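User: Predict structure, ligand nickel (II) ion.
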Amino acid sequence: MKNTFINSDDIRHDFSVAMSEMYQKEVPLYGDLIELVTEVNTEVLNKQPEIRQQLEHTGEIDRLNMERHGAIRLGTAAELSMMRRLFAVMGMHPVGYYDLAPAAVPVHSTAFRAIDSQSLNNSPFRVFTSLLRLDLIGDEALKQEAIAALNNRNIFTDNVVSLIEHFEEQGGLTADDARQFVKEALETFRWHDKTPVSKALYQRLLSQHGLIADVVGFKGPHINHLTPRTLDIDAVQAGMQAKGIPPKAIIEGPPRRECPILLRQTSFKALEEAVSFKNSEGGYETGHHTARFGEIEQRGVALTPKGRELYDKMLSQARKQLGVTPNADNAAKYYQILESAFDAFPDDYQTLHDEGLAYFYYQASDSSADMSSADSELGVNASSCSSTGSISKQAMADLIEQGMIRVEPIVYEDFLPVSAAGIFQSNLQDTKQSSYEGNSNQQEFENALGARVHDELELYQAIQAQSLKACLMRLNSHA
Ligand code: OOG
Ligand code: NI
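Assistant: Predicted complex:
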């Protein structure tokens, strides 16, 4: 009998549950954070039925409590390309390119995630994955030692590599293999408190950059945070303080708005953890390392290139006006500046839609079937739209106004480089470096990855176009 394969969405879901369990055991404060987020989300859904309804319309309601992203940092091209193959087993593909060097973080990154709406709703788990840029280390001798240390480690179990190969050859994994895969893949993300490097080397790496020590100094790319999704990040930030979970000073991203855009993020400070460094006698020497933390995110509507340009402009205007990196001492002032900088960014979905600033699902509203006879009297018939997915702007505006078509925000599934840099930095000791020279190097990243990254804007555009087509077909079938 032919073996049936397990759906990649299910493997991804099982993996994210296993990862969350492991991380809650490793970092108990993360469990407290999840509790807080669940409380806040329940309250928002109870008090604001319009938000519940919107999440029902977009299919996000069921994924809300399983929403997680995590992050890892890799050291070599070989690690990155094997990681791509590992994530592919779980239906996760590289989306977007993020260059963090201009913000003094010597990495470039992508996010592995599902790419279509259905898979995202089945399991939204994603991993922000960074590759260390050793080319940015100035100290040549140290660079060589770092390369040697990285070449000496193997972050994947032999079993997981054979299961990946199996998946690629057969096009899927059986239930038994999938179970085994989840268990073996998890090993790569586990924390190891015994380092393969000496304390002296660790300290030299640390004095170059905290991230270099975090990658080169360890046996594997321990998951460094997991992030649940909240519907009210300000409430969680306040709740963290009340519960004794030390929050980062600033919520990254856009200000609080009626209609959330893109992504707002905050985190709790990384823990100082005991580690044992290998010494030359084969024994261990004690020390500590700071890397692992918890994060929260609030996601809003994805912006079009026009909307994104406006966002980038307003954010950089606010930061320029503040003059220094936002921190605990200037938080209140920063939020004030940020809010006024964003005054001119429309804050209702209709305007965001009409001005082409954000991406939306088009949905035939529930009442459209009953209305299709009445609207012909108004001179606008649903059949004025073609089933190929094209419709004039005016006809669309009329159908929306008549309540035949409803627009719902397409949620932003990706990350923001300035925010990501803020998250990285909140967990590093002050570095002297304020930015790294050198161009953003997507080509080099893709060479290391062994594949091109998907363009996130094309993905949102395709989801919007697909929803329009389905909506028009549905209206036509009623007309
Ligand atoms: C990744 C930091 C970026 C986010 O959510 O923007 C990030 C890291 O610290 O490795 O996770
Ligand atoms: Ni994160």
